[in-house]
Amino acid sequence: MPTAFILNVDDYAPGRYSRTKILTQAGFEVREAATGSEALQMAKENPQLILLDVNLPDINGLEVCRRIKENPETARTIVLHLSASNVLPEHRVAGLENGADSYLTEPVAPTVLIATIRALLRAHAAEEALRHSNSELEHFATMISHELREPLRSVSTYTELLHAKLAGRLEASEEQYMTQMLAGTRRMNQRISSILEYSRAEHGRSDISDISAEEMLTEVLDELQLLVAQAGAKIEHEPLPTVRANRIGLSRVFANLITNAIKYRGAERPVITISVVPHGEHYLFAIRDNGTGIDPLFHHQIFDPFKRLHGPELSGAGLGLALCRRVIKSCGGEIWVDSSPGNGSTFYFTLPAPPKSAAFPQ
Question: How would you classify the pairing of strands 345-352 and 282-289?
Fold first, then answer.
């Protein structure tokens, strides 16, 4: 196993020296930085772990951690805060909520420091192994979808050509068979796309950043403009905040929930209302519709993959809500529904709010 590279950041030279000595004796490769600016620069050298003092002369250690975690090139680096002055529970909470992986207060016994570092490195190694496995699974799903799409495209193309060539010569039953064949190929293609999209949803976990939900909704409504116009749907929404989320994932959540609200509409014109309120350290979104509604018996089941409550007369692979749940949970939120038959549905989901600041609570 290669030697772990640790960046030791502390402006107090004697403390930095003694800590480097402890780490070196434990078998780690250690480099040092005395300021936040140096730490940010050296973080680009890909240390496995950064021991980061909170009180630095130029940039607060929390701000350094935030920048490291927001930079895609360094986001996976483990950050362990150390502090001899910020030792209250609220200081630890602020450090951890700001993105640090652990927080120790000094004085800390050398054995505890080394054991903590090794535990963090083990957890990180397991996470990287899982990430690699997920990447291979995504590659496999992409390959399989390509292998399935090619013969499916041939079946669809030749069926369409045959249908056109025999136009006007088919009996009613033969015309029905041909129509069902074409509809079946379209459904299969849609399901392949849905499975691929679902398999990729977890991949967005490492791409979480501050996203304007307002801008994201505007893009989605532009994408769904034709569908909304054809259904005569009315969509109303409040100004939406900035949230911590995956950009592509959030767009799919909005798109799936709005599309479902239109697809499962009742006899009246579809009316969809999107609202949001603060909810602790999260925002609580609500997407309400006046559609057919959902029996409470199925509220939990609808978020399971391939679960559909309607027959083939309505298109879909049964992965839309499963994808929504996977995206929302990967961002640190929750999603649920409040609905009953004939009374429409309200889908609720939470997303983390951006950190207010990189400073300790007073």
Answer: antiparallel
